[in-house]
Each structure stands twice: as structure tokens, then as C-alpha cells.
Amino acid sequence: MTDKIRITDSTLRDGSHAMAHRFTEEQVRGVVHALDSAGVEVIEVTHGDGLGGSSFNYGFSLEDDIKLVSAAVDEATRAKIAVLLLPGLGTVEDLKRARAAGASVARIATHCTEADVSLQHFAAARDLGMETVGFLMLSHRIGPDELARQARIMVDGGAQCVYVVDSAGALVLGDAQERIAALVKEIGHEAEVGFHGHQNLSLGVANSVLAQQNGARQIDGALCALGAGAGNSPTEVLVATFERLGVPTGVDVQGALAAADDVVKPFLDRLPFADRGAITQGYAGVYSSFLLHAERAAERYGVPAHEILQRVGEAGYVGGQEDMIIDVALQLVRERERAE
Amino acid sequence: MLSAAIVGPGNIGTDLLVKLLRSDEIKVHSMVGVDPESDGLARARALGVPASAGGVDWLLAQDDLPDLVFEATSAKAHLANAPRYEAAGITAVDLTPAATGPFVCPPVNLGSLAEAPNLNMITCGGQATIPIVHAVSSVVPVPYAEIVASIASRSAGPGTRANIDEFTQTTARAIERVGGADRGKAIIILNPVDPPMIMRDTVFCAIPDGADTGAIAESVHRMVAEVAEYVPGYALRAEPQFDAPRDIWRGMARVAVFLEVRGNGDYLPEWAGNLDIMTAAAARVGEQLARGGAR
């Protein structure tokens, strides 16, 4: 019998990017109710950039994170509520407030080479009695062995699972497979391995299947793919696909389809789509959350979003450096003025 | 002229030594550490500076005590040493996160702190951005200011990494107390790109609708010139960017200021502008105290 995998739904966290961080309490309650009824075990609820993300740089939340976490905890009957935290942006104090509001899973995210900035937060999460998950973002930027060494740092610091996070949607099949295999080999007997995919090259679900086949036991999705860039692996597609493969997820396929179609789709202004900007992100390896920021800078400064994203990729900017998008747009404006 | 000891012969202490040896206002008294094998102590001796691995016990046993001590150790060490310096009548300039004394940012509030026995240098991101917050808040009220500091991964030592919350919390408090914003927020990002990126800082200030943007821009330019007097690689990347109020910004109008901090390459590499601005600001504090007369 195939091992069960656990689906974590990030509609209310990664999807927050696509919603410009404007989720209402009513939307949060509706999504949590539908996911919980369908049997999803973990539901992540936070600003797209994690606790403390509400800012000029990333966008202000319509509703305070903690208020939305409380509402989610209130609505869930079985599901655990998870929160994301990026060290350098959110703090242990933010984590304590989320815990007090009822969050029980702490997902601590760092750039893939910087795992050691998370140790303070893993220690705090464990002290608070939370389940812990490490997130190695932009995992395509380093090779499998180096990534496994970073995962080891997180596990030694208290992570119970470490995710290969394809923040740019840039991992192409074998790239995801090799990274998952390397992590399973390094940490597999002490911790689980997870995969978080994006659809910029339309490979989120395929990469998730390869991840499962190589030993990943936690897989992220979002209803209607709602997430940064071209969105996340759609939860409803993951659930249906894994069922066809005979991999138990504990999630009811019809329930997941209904959650996507009846609950999320009606409040979306635009469905995540692999447009020119999003594909450029997958192709050039650019952090998916930069998409809407690049579009805004493009509008403000009259330069194309895909050129901004290409330049951001060349500069090697990492998650959190949204301010550099304006800087790049201003550079492009200067270059155009000089050329005229 | 004041005499000054440097306690903590690591990267920061060594870079500070190079800067102080260039100064006409400061005479370097000694370099003090605890490890006899320390490169920094050897380097100090080679530059003709008395150096000891005997720690603060050695320093305070000298007949000729310094006027100033620059502490570049750890918060824990400084908390233990600070009362001893004060008892000996030595002014302490604290480059650790201990923050036992008031926050100091030279172009903003050094004048009012000349008599304080202990001055804290805040954080690298604070030294880079608080002058700008102050430049804006001295023209218009700033209900909220937010800074983003991006530094090269290689310039973030184990101390910073193990306690990164200390950076965000201390910087945010100083944006309020020294920068003059009602509410402050600080973000730090480590970037591992190779060759390493030069320190970048972005300052976002909420400003009133219809604020005099010309006056704000002029104030920012004046402040950049003042900081560049002691951090020559401190520069604007672009003109300050003004935006009208937006609903998604909770109805606030905004000025955004994009900065680059290129280090002086004294002991640390140029890209480590975050470390350079700390030692340069500390040296500036020492020089200004010297000009203002010793306590």
C-alpha cells in the first residue's frame, strides 16, 4: 500500500499575492470551511510574504493576519492552521501572536542558501508547541547536494519537514526529482520532505507527482492555482491526480472540486495564468511574487513588466527584494532616455 | 584630540582601526582582545598600536586610560563591560546590539548626546536609513516609515544570523525614536549572489497628501551629502520617488528613497557597505566628541 501524503493548501497564503493581500474575513471563512469539509489537513493563512508582511514593500493587508488566523481556527473542525514566517521580515513576537490565535503549524522560509537565519524561529516554534516546517525558497538556484545541506541545518534547528520550494516555477521535472531525492537521502530518517510548486512553466502538478515518487510526503497546492506568478499547483488537480495514481491524500476529490469552483472562483478577478510575465519568471528563475509588483512598476514608469522581470533575474535578486523592482524600472527608464 | 581603545579585534574592530589611524582627532590607545592568536591583534601591533589579549581587565589596569572605548565584541560582553567603563570615566561607543545607552546616528542626534557615557550605534541598516527618515520627518509629519536593507550574505556574520530579529526590532525602534516616524518597520534581506551585491537600502515614508515634494527632496539631498562626508560610498540610486495616496496604501501618500552604500574598502571589501557604515559612523562619533571637547 502506498504511503499517504499530506496536502497543505496555501490558497489563503500564496494566494494572497494574487489577491494583492486583500482577503476578507468572509472569504477566509468560506475557503477554510470548504477545505476542512473536503478533508484537507493543513490550511495556511497569512499575508503572502508571511507574518509581518503587511508593508509598503509587499503590500498592506486589508485585514490583520492575526484576525484572519483566528477566523480560520474558529471555522476549522479538523484542519490545522499554518502560518508562514520569513526571518528578517517577521519575528518571534509575530509567531507568538499567531500561536495565541490558534495557529499550530509554523512554516519558516528562507532563501535556499540562508537556512541558518531560521534557527531562532524554529526554536521558538518548538517551544510554543507548534509543528514545524522549513521552506527553502528559490530552490532552483543551487544544486541538490547543497540544498540537502541547507535542509540539514533546518532539521538540526528543529524542522520536522523541509520543503523544496520552487518559488520561481523554474524546476523542470528532473530538477525537482533530484532535489527531492537528495533531501530524502540527507534528512529522510529524521524528518519529512515536501514540495511547493508553481505553474510558471505549467509543471507544478507534474513536479509534485515526481516529488511524491521520490519520497516527498507533504505537497502544497492552492485552489484554482491561486498563488504568485502563474499560481501554485492547483489543490483540486493534485487531489484528483493522486487519487488516479492510487496515492492516498485523505482529501475528497468532489469536495476539492467544489471548493475551487463554488467558493474560490466566484471571488477571483483574474485566474492565475501563464502569461508573458509569468513564463519569463519560470524561464529566467525569478521569484513568482514579483509579478504583480513588476506589473505595477511597469504601469507607473511605462516600461514592460517582462523586461523588468528579466533584469531582476539577471541581478539574482531573492524573495523579499521587491523594492529592487522599482529600482530596475527606474534604470530602464534612464536607459531609454539616454537612447532617445 | 581624544585617545580611544578598540575592544574586539574582529573584522569590525580591525576596519575601525584603519579608519581611526587616519583621523587627526583620535589617537588610538590600544586594541584589546581575549585571544592571543587573534589576527586583529597581530595586525594592530604591525601598525604600531599597543595590543593585548588581556581583555578589559588589562585595559582598565593601565595607568593611562583612554577617553573613549569602541566596543566591537558582542551584546553580552558589552553588557558586562559597560558599567566598568562608566566607573572608570571612559565614554563607550557601542557597536554591539546591547543598546544599554541611547541610540546615536551622527547627523541626526549626536549633538544632543555629547555628554552621554554610553552611545549605541543601532544597526547597519539603521545608520543607512535613519538619516533619510529624519530628513523627511523634519519637513513633514511621517506617520509611518519602513526600510528594507539588502546585504550580501557573506557580510552577515554568525551573530547576525543567529538573532536576526534583533536587527528588525532595534532598527524599527530607532526609526521611531531617532528618525522621527510615529511608527517604524525594518526588513533585512540576505542575498548570496556572486560577485556579492553592494549594500542597498530603500526607505519608504508615508507623507501627507499635497506635501511639498520639492522641500522633501532637497532635505534628502542635503542629508545624503552630510552622510557622504563620513561614508564616501553613500549615494542615491535615483531621485526620491513621490506617489499620490492610494487605497492599497491605507490612503497614505509616499516617498521612496533608493540608496547604495559602497564600503570604503579599508579592511573589509567594498561590497560590505553594511559593515563600513557602522565603523564609519562610529569613527564619526569619536571625531565629533573630540571636536566638542572631552568629558
TrEMBL record, chain A:
Keywords: Aromatic hydrocarbons catabolism, Lyase, Manganese, Metal-binding
Residue numbers annotated as active site: H17
Chain residues that bind substrate: R13, D14, S167, H196, Y287
Keyword Ligase in annotation: no
Transition state stabilizer (site feature) positions: R13
Pfam families (UniProt xref): DmpG_comm, HMGL-like
Cross-referenced SUPFAM superfamilies: Aldolase, post-HMGL domain-like
Protein name: 4-hydroxy-2-oxovalerate aldolase
Species the sequence originates in: Actinomadura fibrosa
From TrEMBL, chain B:
Keyword terms of this UniProt record: Aromatic hydrocarbons catabolism, NAD, Oxidoreductase
Alphabetical list of SMART domains matching this protein: Semialdhyde_dh (SM00859)
Molecular-function annotations in GO: acetaldehyde dehydrogenase (acetylating) activity
Pfam families documented for this protein: AcetDehyd-dimer
Record-linked InterPro entries: Acetaldehyde_dehydrogenase, Acetylaldehyde_DH_C, NAD(P)-bd_dom_sf, Semialdehyde_DH_NAD-bd
Catalytic-site annotation from UniProt: C124
Coiled-coil intervals: none
Known catalytic reactions: acetaldehyde + NAD(+) + CoA = acetyl-CoA + NADH + H(+)
Binding site for NAD(+): S155, A156, G157, P158, G159, T160, R161, A162, N163, N274
Broad class of enzyme this protein falls into: oxidoreductase
UniProt xrefs under CDD domains: ALDH_C
EC number: 1.2.1.10
Residues of the Semialdehyde dehydrogenase NAD-binding domain: 3-116
Source superkingdom: Bacteria
Family indicated by similarity: Belongs to the acetaldehyde dehydrogenase family.
Stored HAMAP family: Ac_ald_DH_ac (MF_01657)
Name of the featured protein: Acetaldehyde dehydrogenase
